[in-house]
Amino acid sequence: MTTRIVGIGGTVNTGSSTEQAMRLAAAAAEAAGAEVTIFGGDYLRGLPHYRGEGYGIQDGAEFVEAVRQADGLIISAPGYHGSISGLVKNALDYLEDLAKDERPYLDGRAVGLIATAYGDQATMSTLQTLRSVVHALRGWPTPMGATVRVYHGLFSPDGECLEDRARMQIELVGQQTYRGACALSQGECNQ
Q1: Which end of the chain has less Cβ packing within 10 Å, N or C?
Q2: If one looks up domain 4-185 in CATH, what number appears?
Q3: pTM over 0.85
């Protein structure tokens, strides 16, 4: 059985640290055996406000269907003014389309969380907000949630995390998301 994980995250800036962190966690899940689908900042930036002006029924359909089929998610959000960005929140609002599914919202799915910001206080409040949103959507946050203080040079141009503490946290989020997704779906995990 294939364990499917969806990665969501980024900012309005292509290749942001937030997206690179999500991709690193997704790579750790993939190395453990998951099939991963990524929805980064470029994709999220193209989503109109959920059910707002300019919204069409096909907007976000690929994203919603990927989450519907997923066993787990990795969500990476930047800390803006002590909370998650509107870009990431808007994407999560699209999960309302899963409300009437047999498995509504994020029910039965492991969810790894990553919060990035320039300051430690913002990473913690952003992580807490992400946990609250995931609980409201009936998801199962992983025990480890990464709080990553970003700065120029944290990631190399090819996406390698150059700080051991941050890299270990991010990879652990990916690994726990995979293991949690396997456990919740009662599938077979590679060890």
Answers
A1: C
A2: 3.40.50.360
A3: yes
